[in-house]
Design brief:
The structure holds 2 protein chains of 2 kinds.
Chain A: H1 7-10, E1 16-22, E2 25-34, H2 39-52, E3 55-66, H3 68-83, E4 88-91, H4 95-103
Parallel strand pairs in A: 2-3, 3-4
Antiparallel strand pairs in A: 1-2
Helix pairs in contact in A: 2-3
Chain B: H1 3-33, H2 37-56, H3 60-77, H4 85-106, H5 113-130, E1 160-165, H6 177-184, E2 188-196, E3 214-221, H7 225-231, E4 240-244, H8 250-259, H9 264-273, H10 279-293, H11 300-306, H12 312-332, H13 340-367, H14 370-393, E5 395-397, H15 399-402, H16 405-416, E6 420-424, E7 430-432, H17 433-454, H18 458-463, E8 470-479, E9 482-489, H19 496-505, H20 517-522, H21 545-554, E10 558-564, E11 568-576, E12 581-589, E13 592-597, E14 601-607, E15 612-613, E16 616-619, E17 622-628, H22 629-632, E18 643-650, E19 653-659, E20 661-669, E21 683-688, E22 694-698, H23 700-713
Parallel strand pairs in B: 6-8, 13-22, 17-19
Antiparallel strand pairs in B: 1-3, 1-4, 2-3, 5-7, 8-9, 9-11, 10-11, 12-13, 12-20, 14-18, 15-16, 16-17, 18-19, 21-22
Helix pairs in contact in B: 1-2, 1-4, 2-3, 3-4, 3-5, 4-5, 8-10, 13-14, 16-17, 17-21
The chains are: A alpha/beta, B alpha+beta.
Chain lengths: ~120, ~725
């Protein structure tokens, strides 16, 4: 069988995380790829917002790819928010992201927010 | 029928016969080691594939038959039906019947009335088997039946359950587990994945490049364990990958839960929620676990052993068996099937090439041109390599023949009420394909003799203080250009007195004639000799050991017997590796050229008359029987002033051949002798030399035997 290598590992495709703040609400917009090669950077930003202490919305509309490392980060963030009893909304999954979460049986995380269907940034 | 269809027909026949072979092997494994997922699946898969292919050719009889067989096998696979030795016999008969149906198809024959009757008879018996509450009283204990393991019924789930805890470092290698699971989807249907976050630390403590997640996967597939395992080939190290097959025993799930870090309660729930287990099955399992917790965490093997379902040896043997199954299935994909006639054509061409090269070589030497000679030498070397490679292609493992014997032993020993264990060694020893086909009959005869006459009845073995189960061993190995195949039994050995009585009665030996043990044993190869006190339908059908011996001699081989009263008999067959091309050593006597197989030549020496003592020649203090080619073939003309001695050895016999002149090595393409000359004993064949003339290939085995006999007498 072919050795399955995550594509992100073999080419560089910048990931962007844009944080906006309105009232007591943080909004995290993810763009590009959330994969193992960007895991360290993404983790730094996630940690910052986790320590900010407010409710959080993560927007996946412009995220074109996510791998296991990325999903694990999202799950860790979610656990943290639940533990601190803060609200976390995961919204606008692109089709790729929605599919990946659904494949791992976690499609329900987006349940309240139907997929945006618009993957382009 | 168009050519394409004809090719498809051949492919189907070939495939079906391979599958039936696998099916038989798996059935015998089932009988021996109990019902294992691997063997049941193999049997099921064979039946299923044959059904599918038969459908393509609209072979309704075969489709209907395999369908019923498959239905029964499905019951076995699901653990709803236990299997005893009688059932195995039925399945084996079904396999035989399918083979006949396939043969009919191959021969473009319509199934005869008797064939259809067999079909109906077997189908009736299969349907009886299917009937739910079949009375099994009065039968032997069933093997590894689901219902004999308390709380060990097969679960309902038809999916594989995979528990995957990958090496935490896996992400850093660039392998994405998600893509592994997607790849899994190519082997079947990934029904459900559950991600376990139990070990995921808080975000501030985590290393984002480590994997903390566990995965539980419900997977529906016809793929076998090896195929599924191969998906995880690159991540196996440091990972825990557990697989529970469809309809597994509950203990397997129990064992799974105990081997995973999350603990049985948590995982138990998960297994129910993902559909691997029903709540009843979980309850059953947990009660089983409580029982075993009193003691210590059990392994599946230990539970089975403790509950006295299967003895430890059986478990070990089964594990061994699974291993060999796995090893073999991984080899299958690397094989290309080629029509034998194409191979034969290739070998013929290589033969012609060898002769043509020899011709070119002689011509080149005549030209006295060094560059030309060097070029021809280069070509000759390559041709030799091509010859070896081409012959190598035709080599197949002797196991292809050995494989049929487990069944023969099983059926015959049952019929005779004997208990026999067959051990096979060296099944991967290779031999030319044409030889493999031609040793089947002699070997079958020898095996039947061993089963019928060799191994004693249980009662007699017990009285003799021997184990009740007799052992027959088949071995094969290579030995200096030959292959040796040996069949030995631990039976009573040959009865010297009885052989002698029989030989005297049939006039082979005069009363009062003194014979050595070896000579007496040799009598069994005489025509018309059979010692069985009662003629059974196994051996003693008029085909005696003399026919076996003749068949082996036709292959330029020899057979040898060793027998020890009370401890057993060993039959050893020595055969050349190929019948097509040999490395030869050319010698001359007068104007005639002769070829001695090079493997058999030990050394060459000058021959001087002073070293002759009677019929022997003394070479460095050792006495050798010898013959002069001139005398043997009555070649006229004066002897040259200097003769040479070629020392040959075949098996344990050494002898000298005196020739006029040594002419060196060559590759000899063996051409069979015409029917007229087939009775000539000293000549094994002919070959064509580079200059176009014919040389005779000496039959050294025959010569050395003749002379060994002669030298013993004097």
């Amino acid at each position: 069988m072919p050795r399955p290598v995550s594509e992100a590992a073999s080419r560089t495709h910048p990931m962007k995380i844009i944080v906006t703040k309105s009232e007591n609400q943080l909004r995290l917009r993810l763009a590009g790829e959330l994969c193992i090669s960007q895991a360290q950077t993404a983790w730094d930003r996630f940690l910052q917002v986790a320590e900010a202490g407010s409710d959080l919305t993560v927007d996946f509309a412009s995220l074109t790819e996510i791998d296991t490392a990325g999903i694990q980060l999202v799950l860790a963030l979610r656990q943290e928010m639940v533990r601190e009893d803060r609200k976390l909304h995961l919204v606008n999954p692109s089709p790729e992201v929605a599919e990946a979460f659904a494949f791992l049986g976690r499609g329900d995380l987006f349940r309240d927010f139907p997929p945006s269907g618009n993957a382009s940034p | 029928m168009s050519l394409d269809l004809e090719a498809a027909r051949t492919a189907f026949v070939q495939e079906a016969s391979d599958l039936l072979g696998e099916m038989e092997e798996a059935l015998l494994a089932m009988e021996r080691f109990g019902v294992q997922a691997e063997s049941v699946n193999a049997v099921f898969r064979s039946a299923h594939t044959i059904k599918g292919s038969a459908g393509l050719f609209s072979l309704e009889d075969m489709v209907d038959f395999t369908h019923i067989l498959e239905t029964v096998l499905e019951e076995v696979r699901a653990g709803r039906k236990s299997v005893d030795s009688e059932d195995i016999s039925l399945f084996l008969e079904c396999g035989d019947h399918l083979r006949h149906l396939v043969d009919d198809f191959a021969n473009h024959a319509h199934p005869t009335e008797s064939r259809q009757a067999t079909s109906r008879r077997l189908l009736e018996r299969l349907q009886d088997l299917q009937a739910p509450r079949r009375s099994r009283s009065g039968k032997g204990p069933s093997i590894a039946a689901g219902d004999t393991i308390p709380g060990g019924d097969g679960v309902q789930s038809e999916a594989w359950h995979l528990s995957i805890r990958l090496d935490p470092e896996v992400l850093k290698t660039g392998i994405d587990p998600l893509s592994l699971f997607r790849y899994l989807g190519k082997l079947g249907e990934v029904q459900r994945i559950d991600v376990l976050e139990d070990n995921l630390p808080s975000i501030s403590e985590m290393d984002p490049e480590r994997l903390y997640l566990g995965f539980e996967i419900q997977f529906r597939s016809r793929a076998n364990r090896t195929e599924i395992e191969s998906v995880f080939e690159f991540v196996r190290e440091g990972s825990t990958i557990r697989m529970v097959p469809p309809h597994a025993q509950i203990v397997e799930y129990l064992q799974l839960l105990q081997s995973l870090p999350e603990g049985p309660d948590r995982l138990g729930e998960l297994l129910v929620s993902c559909g691997a287990l029903t709540t009843t099955e979980l309850a059953q399992m947990l009660s089983l676990q409580r029982k075993s917790d009193l003691d210590r965490p059990p392994t599946l093997g230990r539970i089975l052993v403790e509950q006295e379902v299967v003895p430890q040896v059986v478990v070990n043997a089964a594990l061994q068996r699974q291993k060999s199954f796995r090893e073999r299935s991984s080899q299958e994909s690397r094989v290309v099937k080629v029509d034998v006639s194409k191979l034969d054509h290739l070998i013929n061409l290589v033969g012609e090439l060898v002769i043509a090269t020899a011709g070119a070589r002689i011509a080149a030497i005549g030209e006295r041109s060094l560059p030309l000679e060097e070029a021809v030498n280069g070509v000759t070397k390559l041709v030799e390599e091509i010859r070896d490679a081409a012959l190598g292609v035709r080599m197949i493992p002797v196991g292809e023949v050995f494989n049929r014997f487990p069944r023969v032993v099983r059926d015959l020993s049952k019929e005779l009420g004997k208990r026999i264990d067959l051990q096979i060694e060296g099944a991967d020893t290779e031999l030319d394909k044409s030889m493999v086909e031609r040793i089947v009959d002699p070997l079958t005869h020898i095996m039947r003799n061993a089963i019928d006459h060799g191994i004693e009845p249980v009662e007699r073995r017990r009285l003799a203080g021997k184990p009740e189960v007799g052992t027959i061993r088949m071995d094969a190995w290579h030995d200096s250009g030959s292959i040796l195949i040996q069949v030995s039994d631990d039976g009573g050995g040959l009865d010297r007195e009885r052989i002698l009585r029989k030989a005297i009665a049939s006039g082979l030996v005069q009363p009062g004639q003194e014979l050595t043990d070896r000579e007496v044993i040799g009598l069994i190869f005489e025509p018309g000799f059979s010692t069985a006190e009662t003629v059974t339908n196994l051996s003693g059908r008029g085909v005696g050991m003399d026919v076996v011996k003749r068949n082996i001699e036709v292959l330029r081989g020899e057979i040898d017997v060793e027998s020890h009263p009370g401890t057993g008999t060993t039959m050893r067959i020595r055969l050349p590796l190929t019948l097509a091309i040999i490395d030869g050593f050319q010698v001359l006597a007068g104007k005639a050229a002769f070829v001695v197989p090079l493997d058999l030549v030990k050394e060459c020496a000058d021959f001087v008359d002073s070293s002759i003592h009677g019929d022997l020649v003394v070479l460095r203090g050792e006495a050798l029987p010898f013959l002069r080619l001139r005398d043997l073939f009555s070649i006229a003309g004066p002897r040259p002033s200097r003769e040479s001695l070629v020392v040959v050895q075949y098996g344990n016999h050494r002898m000298g051949i005196v020739v006029d002149q040594l002419a060196g090595e060559l590759q000899a393409v063996i051409k069979p002798m015409g029917a007229l000359f087939r009775e000539l004993k000293a000549i094994g064949g002919t070959t064509i030399l580079g200059n176009g003339s014919v040389a005779l290939i000496l039959d050294v085995p025959h010569l050395s035997q003749t002379f060994a006999r002669r030298s013993r007498i004097c």
